[in-house]
Amino acid sequence: MTSPHAFWVAGRRATGADSFDVTNPYDGRLVGTVSVPTDDQVEEAVAAAHAVRDEFAATPAHVRAAALDHVVRRLGERTEEIARLISAENGKPIKWARGEVGRAVSVFRFAAEEARRFNGGEAQRLDTDLGGTGRLGLTRRFPRGAVLGIAPFNFPLNLSAHKVAPAIAVGAPIILKPAPATPISSLILGELLAETDLPAGSWSVLTVPNDKMPALVQDERLPVISFTGSGPVGYAIMESVPRKHCTLELGGNGAAVVLSDYASDEDLDWAATRIATFSNYQGGQSCISVQRVIADASVYDRLVPKIVAAVEALATGDPADPTTDVGPLVSEDAAKRVESWVDEAVQGGAELLTGGKRDGATYAPTVLAGLPDDVTLSCEEVFGPVMSLQKVDGEAEAFAAVNSSKYGLQAGVFTHDLQTAFRAHRALEVGGVIIGDVPSYRADQMPYGGAKQSGVGREGVRYAMDDYTYERVLVLTGLAL
Predict the structure, then answer these.
(1) For residue 354, pLDDT beyond 50
(2) Dihedral sign from CA coordinates of 380, 386, 392, 397
(3) CB burial readout 35-47, b (16+ within 10 A) else e
């Protein structure tokens, strides 16, 4: 019998008295057993992070950058191993898991680059008024303190990277709490960090059960919380600690808009293929997957059969098979929830164009039309391989339909018109507008986050670094400017 996977306390490998199993959602096989930290071990990690905060903030940029560069190299060397692990614990098709490792490599590379140029200082003349004669302001950024990073199951490595890498880049200690369903890839990340020369206490990876999290959230020694997950949990965290700095990356209800000028067969083939792929990749378990397709009436009837055909062409099955496009959801309970929402919509009058069937944790890629406004699928994030189609009359009606959601993460607009692109950028109440593609596009260096109930703050390496730090001004007096 193999030993449980250890967690990491202040950079040191450790095990606790309890453990839990991680299973493959596709076939139920055991992926690994993970040790659970005791309350004393959690306290040790928090105390160490708090104690090292000044030392870590003062660490030379080249030391932090070298550690990040090391993780870049080691992730690259272990890509296939880690991708297969992500696929096993998450159910993500192996081709998407490989892509996730590649993205994590980029995140750490961007962080290494930013660590070398961040905090260079901005000088400001203050002698613009008489009282400022001979004075110069110098502004720099300093860490707010230790960070509690809470990662989700859907991108267990890359979204952990988005919390850990910016913290290291600015010199902020971080305690990473991975999702219970998918902790092992984060523990592998701990292995790589342990190979660096970062100060003891500057990082920990704690496989803490969810019911133990309130104490960590409330701990005043962790003044920054970076959370990615569901809206109810995220807002409950923020409301419970109003004096902390919280970054919340929450849900979405991603809309892809196809406007009247996107009308050639080539245009519609591209739109249909992209929509089909990114409604269903990761089993639809992405906050920016396509959940709503809003198409102008002039192209709707030609677009719909293309989308249905593209969805039906997707290969569903074993995530370890490189030809598989759509694997299982993270659990059978998650698939049952999606099934219940689709059944509710069909009973309410929606037309099922394809899909609508569940096999264990796998739910068939599903397309609905004529979705009633009062069903759950119309207003909540499905987080599964389901999309709805809506016909609209013109740009204004399309943009209004996008904005009708309580969420506002990203939107995709298929148009060739530059003026329309700028109108979309102004009108759509979302954090990102993607022109000529689906809302599911994300570059890991760009600002990523939402409006309305999609969260607070931004990820993307440089933007997370800003969130983890604050400006402090130094005023110099008596200078000959």
Answers:
(1) yes
(2) positive
(3) bbbeeebbebbbe
| Average of per-residue pLDDT across 53-59 | 97
* CB-CB contact of 93 with 326 (8 Å): yes
| Separation CA 156–CA 133 (nearest Å) | 54
Nearest one of 66, 63, 104 to 82, comparing CA atoms: 104
User: Which sequence positions are flagged as catalytic?
Assistant: 249, 287
Integer Cα distance of 291 and 367 in angstroms:
10
396: CB partners within 8 A, 6+ apart: none
pLDDT at 1: 47
Tens digit of pLDDT for each residue in 193-250? 999 999 999 999 999 999 999 999 999 999 999 999 999 999 999 999 999 999 999 9
3 — pLDDT class (breaks 50, 70, 90): confident
User: CA-CA distance, 101 to 78, in Å (whole number)?
Assistant: 9
Token look-up 């022109």 returns 435
Q: For the chain, how far is it from start to end, CA to CA, in angstroms?
A: 72
Question: How far is the C-alpha of 212 from the C-alpha of 38, rounded, in Å?
Answer: 10
Work out the burial of residue 72: count CB atoms within 10 Å of its CB; fewer than 13 is exposed, 13-18 middle, 19 or more buried: buried
The backbone region for 364, taken as left when phi is positive above 0, alpha when psi lies in -120 to 50, beta otherwise, is beta
Cα distance between residue 253 and residue 244, in whole Å: 28
DSSP 261: T
Tell me the torsion sign for CA atoms 35, 36, 41, 43: positive
| Alpha-helical regions (H) of 212-361 | 213-218, 231-240, 265-280, 297-312, 332-347
Q: Burial letters for 257-273: b for 16+ Cβ neighbours within 10 Å, e otherwise?
A: bbbbbbbeeebbebbbb
Residue 383 gets the label, from left (phi > 0), alpha (psi -120 to 50) or beta, of left
Tokens of 437: 């593609």
pLDDT tier at 312, thresholds 50, 70, 90: very high
CA-to-CA distance for 206 and 188, rounded, in angstroms? 12
Please state the rounded mean pLDDT for residues 464-475: 96
Q: What percentage of the chain exceeds 70 in pLDDT?
A: 99
Q: Are 386 and 415 in contact (CB under 8 A)?
A: no
Q: Model's pTM, two decimal places?
A: 0.96
Locus of tokens 């009708």 = 404
419-431 burial, b if ≥16 CB within 10 A, otherwise e? Answer: ebbebbeebbbbb
Read off the tokens for 187.
């523990």
Please report, for residues 24, 234, 364, the alpha-carbon distance to residue 325 in angstroms, rounded to integers and kept in the order given.
17, 30, 11
